[in-house]
Design brief:
With 305 residues, the chain is an alpha/beta fold. The chain has two domains: 161 residues, Spore Coat Polysaccharide Biosynthesis Protein SpsA, Chain A (Alpha-Beta Complex), CATH 3.90.550.10; 66 residues. The chain has eight helices and 22 strands. The strands form five sheets. Strands 1, 4, 5, 6, 8, 9, 10, 11, 12 and 13 form a ten-stranded mixed beta sheet that branches. Strands 15, 16, 17, 19, 21 and 22 form a six-stranded mixed beta sheet that branches. It has a two-stranded antiparallel sheet with strand order 2-3. The protein is globular, with a radius of gyration of 20 Å. The termini are far apart.
Length: 305
């Protein structure tokens, strides 16, 4: 059920992960700042939240936190909670609450590596009568990490069945509305799902699912990072995107994103590639590769093996 306004709700982007599966990209930037299309992944999420009415955002950071702080400073409308030690998704939210960056009774949280056109307004307006509402995509029966009964109430989370009557299976996207009852019991460290939602469900608390039918990607690997850039192009009807300060001489591009001031050798052919700002691309034919400054070309297919 929805109301007509964003009632007593704040928003936070979870951006403190290590991004180990996206190395070597995450040795240069934290995962949420890796560019997708024309801007950082974190910027896409922030734009969606602001379009839904959230003027000021909280974000946490740990790995290469100075980069997130610089991004937030340039943005001017973000509060950054720097975690010297990783606190987990629940602990990260708890720290932001304790610091006063979450002032409202409810909190909308989004993983910083989620790439999707999110229904922020609909989720934020949900009449959350329990602990949380999880945004989740339909999944084959029994294969999703969330199971719900006919009313949309969660009866299975991860591999643990809490109650009988599972009617549909979903995959949790990493975006949720946390109710007032949950914000008051978050631990100083721990996982929002494993250490908070599961114990609460066992004790009878209500957690619901809002179905999401659109396309989405968990940008946690080099492969999904490349696919997110291709999806960004496709969503805009673009064959490729070339940013300012790039000179192309007899270069062929297909499904490729080229960042600001990148240098592309003459007669290069790029198919399904991502070129970061200020990176260099040698002559030759390149497919499914990511180019970043100071690093050898990253073959995504090879890295996935």
């Amino acid at each position: 059920m929805e109301s007509s306004a964003l009632v007593s709700t704040d928003a936070m982007i979870l951006a403190a992960g290590l991004g180990t599966r996206m190395r070597p990209l995450t040795e240069l930037l934290p995962k949420p700042l890796a560019p997708i299309g024309d801007k950082a992944a974190l910027a896409h999420i922030a734009d969606d939240l602001r379009a839904a009415g959230f003027a000021h955002l909280a974000v946490n950071a740990h790995h290469l936190a100075a980069h997130v702080e610089a991004f937030a400073s340039a943005d001017g409308r973000m509060s950054v909670s720097v975690e010297r030690e990783l606190l987990g998704t629940a602990g990260g939210v708890r720290r932001a609450v304790d610091a006063g960056w979450v002032r409202e009774k409810r909190l909308l949280v989004v993983n910083g590596d989620l790439f999707a056109s999110l229904p922020i307004k609909a989720l934020a307006r949900h009449q959350c009568g329990g602990d949380a509402v999880l945004l989740a995509a339909p999944a084959p029966t029994g294969l999703g990490n969330v199971g719900v009964d006919e009313t949309g109430r969660v009866v299975r989370l991860r591999n643990e069945t809490i109650a009988l009557g599972e009617a549909a299976s979903f995959a949790y996207l990493g975006c949720a509305l946390l109710g007032e009852s949950l914000l008051g019991v978050l631990p100083a460290e721990g996982c929002l799902v494993g250490d908070v939602l599961l114990p609460r469900l066992r004790s009878g608390s209500l957690v619901e699912v809002m179905p999401f039918l659109g396309a989405w990607l968990d940008v946690g690997t080099l492969r999904s990072y490349l696919e997110a850039n291709v999806a960004w192009l496709n969503a805009r009807g673009l064959s490729s995107h070339v940013a300012d300060g790039v000179t192309l001489e007899h270069v062929q591009l297909t499904s490729t994103v080229i960042g600001v001031s990148a240098r592309i050798a003459a007669h290069a052919t790029l198919d399904r590639c991502v070129v970061w700002p200020h990176a260099s691309v040698p002559a030759g034919t390149h497919r499914d590769r990511v180019f970043v400054p100071g690093v050898a070309p990253i073959d995504v297919a090879e890295a996935a093996r």
